[in-house]
C-alpha cells in the first residue's frame, strides 16, 4: 500500500539543523499490520507524519496507494489525506470545546452523508472503543486513557484505507490495549485497511507481523 | 508519609454526577515506592490529584506529612504543594513558549536561590533524564517521549518530599522507562522522598512494593 525510498527529514531551527530521519526505505503491505518500533527520540513520529502526509520530507520518494505523493501540492495532499488516511496522534489533538461525539464526527463533515448517518457512525465507533456512555462529555471531562480512545475512534470513523496509529495504547491498561489492537485487526480484515502501529509495548506485536525498527533516524535490524 | 480514609470525589456536571472515587482508604509509606494500578477510567488520576493537593475531595480525610490537609485553605494548600510535592502530569502540561530549561526551572522560581543555581539544577535534572542536549528547545520541537521526560525533570527539580507520577513512562521505550524508575529510586534513597507511581506497565513494579489497585472508584485486591 505504501513504499518509500531514501526518505529524509531535517528540522531547520534558528541556529541548528536536526536530521530526524536520515534516508529510510521500506514498505507497508496492503491489508496487513506493520509495527514501527525504536527508542524515544529515534524518528518514529517523524516517519509516521510523512506517511500520513502531515509533513513533507526533505528528500526521498514515497508512493501511497499507487500515487506518487511527493508530487502533490499542499491542497492535493490534504484532500488525499482526508479521503484515504486515518491518523491517531501521539498527543491525541482533540478539540476541547466539542463533545466526544462531535470530535469523532469531525472527519465525516466533508463527506456526502446525512447528519443522522454521521451521528450514527460516530456513536458506533465510540461504542466500539468502550465509550458509549460518555458521548456528550468533553475531552476535559474524561480520563487520559479515555481521551486516547476518542482519538482512536476519530481515526477509524472515516473507515480509511490507510490507518496510522502513533502509540495508540500508551495510556491504556493491558486488557483495553488488547481490545484496541483486536479492533484494528477486525477493521483490517473487514475493510482491507492497511494498518501501521507505532508502539513501545512489544507484547502487542502479533507474531509474524512486519516490523520496521528505527534507531537514530535510520532503519535498523530488529532487537 | 500520607494516609487517607473514606476519600471520595464526585465530579458535578450540568445534568449528571460522576462518582469517580467512592470512599478509598490507604496509605503511602515514607521513603518507599507505592504503585497505583487499575483499568482505564477507574479513578487513579483522580486519586493522585487529591494526594497532590491539586483538587479537593468531596468527602473523607487525608493527612500528608503529618498535616491534616482537608483543613487547609486554597492558598495554604497551594503553598504546601509548592514546598513539598512534585507532580508528573499524565498529559505533561509543559509551557509551550518556554524552553525546556525554563520549564524545568519554573518550580524553583519561588525559592531563595540564585539565578545561577536554579539554572544549574535545572540542567542537572535535564541531564539526568537524558535531555542535556535539548535544553534550549521548546516543547513543540522534541518528541513525545522527550516531552514526558521534561515533565519528569520538572517534578524532580524541587527535590520534593512527596513525588507523585501519573503514568510517567507511558511514552517511553523499555530501556528508558527502566532508567526513569531507577532515577526515582535513587531520589527516594538519597533524599528520603516518598514516591507514588501510577502505571499500566506491570513489568515496572519492583517485587515487594506496595500496590494500591483501583477498580471502578474503589480499592480492590491485586490482580
Ligand atoms: N472533570 C471530570 N468531569 C467528569 N468526569 C470526570 C472528570 N475527570 C474524570 N472523570 C471521570 O472519572 C472517572 C475516573 O477518571 P480518572 O481520570 O481518575 O481515571 P484513570 O484511572 O486515571 O484512567 P486512565 O488510566 O484512563 O488515565 C472516569 O470515568 C472519568 O470519565
Ligand atoms: N519540530 C521539531 N524541531 C526540531 N527537532 C524536532 C522536532 N520534532 C522532533 N524533533 C527531533 O527529531 C527527533 C525525532 O523525533 P520523533 O518525534 O520522530 O521521535 P520518536 O521516535 O517519535 O520519539 P518518542 O518515542 O519519544 O515519541 C528527536 O530527536 C526530536 O527531538
Ligand atoms: Mg513519537
Ligand atoms: Mg489517568
Describe this structure in words.
- Two copies of one chain form a homodimer.
- With 223 residues, chain A is α/β, with parallel strands linked by helices.
- Chain A has helices at residues 44-51, 74-84, 100-105, 115-128, 144-156, 174-191; strands at 2-12, 17-28, 33-37, 59-64, 67-68, 85-88, 162-166, 194-198, 210-215, 218-220.
- In chain A, helix 4 packs across helix 5 (144-156).
- The radius of gyration of chain A is 17 Å and the shape is globular.
- Chain A starts with a strand and ends with a strand.
- The A-B interface holds A 11, 13, 38-41, 45, 90-91, 137, 141-146, 149, 166-167, 170-177, 200-202 and B 11, 13, 38-41, 45, 90-91, 137, 141-146, 149, 166-167, 170-177, 200-202.
- The complex binds adenosine-5'-triphosphate (2 copies) and magnesium ion (2 copies).
- One adenosine-5'-triphosphate sits between chains B (11, 13, 18, 20, 38, 40-46, 90) and A (141-146, 171).
Amino acid at each position: 500500500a505504501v513504499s518509500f525510498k531514501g526518505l529524509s527529514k531535517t528540522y531547520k531551527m534558528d541556529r541548528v539543523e536536526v536530521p530526524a530521519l536520515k534516508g529510510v526505505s521500506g514498505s507497508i503491505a496492503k491489508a496487513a499490520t506493520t509495527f514501527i518500533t525504536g527508542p524515544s527520540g529515534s524518528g518514529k513520529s517523524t516517519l509516521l507524519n510523512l506517511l500520513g502526509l502531515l509533513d513533507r520530507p526533505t528528500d526521498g520518494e514515497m508512493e501511497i496507494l499507487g500515487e506518487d505523493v511527493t508530487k502533490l501540492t499542499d491542497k492535493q495532499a490534504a484532500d488525499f489525506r482526508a479521503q484515504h488516511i486515518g491518523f491517531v496522534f501521539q498527543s491525541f489533538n482533540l478539540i476541547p470545546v466539542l463533545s466526544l461525539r462531535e470530535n469523532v464526527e469531525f472527519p465525516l463533515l466533508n463527506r456526502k452523508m446525512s447528519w443522522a448517518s454521521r451521528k450514527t457512525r460516530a456513536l458506533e465507533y465510540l461504542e466500539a472503543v468502550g465509550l458509549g456512555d460518555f458521548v456528550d462529555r468533553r475531552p476535559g471531562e474524561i480520563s487520559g486513557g479515555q481521551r486516547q480512545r476518542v482519538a482512536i475512534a476519530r481515526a477509524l470513523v472515516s473507515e480509511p484505507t490507510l490507518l496510522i496509529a502513533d502509540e495508540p495504547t500508551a495510556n491504556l491498561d493491558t486488557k483495553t490495549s488488547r481490545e484496541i489492537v483486536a479492533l484494528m485487526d477486525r477493521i483490517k480484515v473487514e475493510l482491507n485497511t492497511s494498518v501501521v502501529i507505532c508502539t513501545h509495548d512489544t507484547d502487542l506485536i502479533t507474531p509474524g507481523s512486519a516490523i520496521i525498527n528505527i534507531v537514530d533516524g535510520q532503519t535498523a535490524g530488529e532487537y
